[in-house]
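Appendix B, Record 12. Input sequence as logged:
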Amino acid sequence: MIIKAKHHFLLDPFFRNYVLWKMKRHFQSFAINGAVQDKSLPILLICNHVSWWDGIWTLYTNQQLFKRKYHFMMLEEELRKNWFFQYTGGFSIKKQSRSIIETFDYTAELLSIANNMVLLFPQGKIKSIYQEKFVFEKGIEKILQRTKNEIQIIFQANLIDYFADAKPNAFFNLQHYTGSYELKKLEAAYNTFYEQCLQTQAKKEI
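Logged structural output:
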């Protein structure tokens, strides 16, 4: 049995407020780049996984723009160690186990509800922010194959720069994806998007 997400009436709002406090404390600034229209559909957010901060950054994006009920997939062993995440939208996946099918079905079920957002890190592990190419695991395609209703897929790329500041400046880049659900096409589109984000970021000046 997988661990399903819950939204505790006290823990969930506390965590959302904690996110804002922690970001303001540790970052000089944070900016959302990219015009993405909210289509009032369930949202699948596909994001690079570069640090512990990623979940907090994407929650911030959701709070600022979409205000959806926020869900995110975590490795089962990590979710059991950090049990409180279950009460703020976390649900489990256990690789190389039969329960993985249940996770795919559950994710598709979440994406059938218009007020939901589901965050996925399709590369499956933390990678350097400077990587040139993402390789997606097969799970995202299997989830999309199970999703029968229309959804909105949004790419997010998180980047940081210090410039002349002691604290980092965070940049959250967004793009709406409307292409094929085929794994390699989705992967290629994200790689193109990420490369464009890096090029744009490299041109920024203080």
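The domain at 11-202 is CATH 3.40.1130.10 (Glycerol-3-phosphate (1)-acyltransferase).
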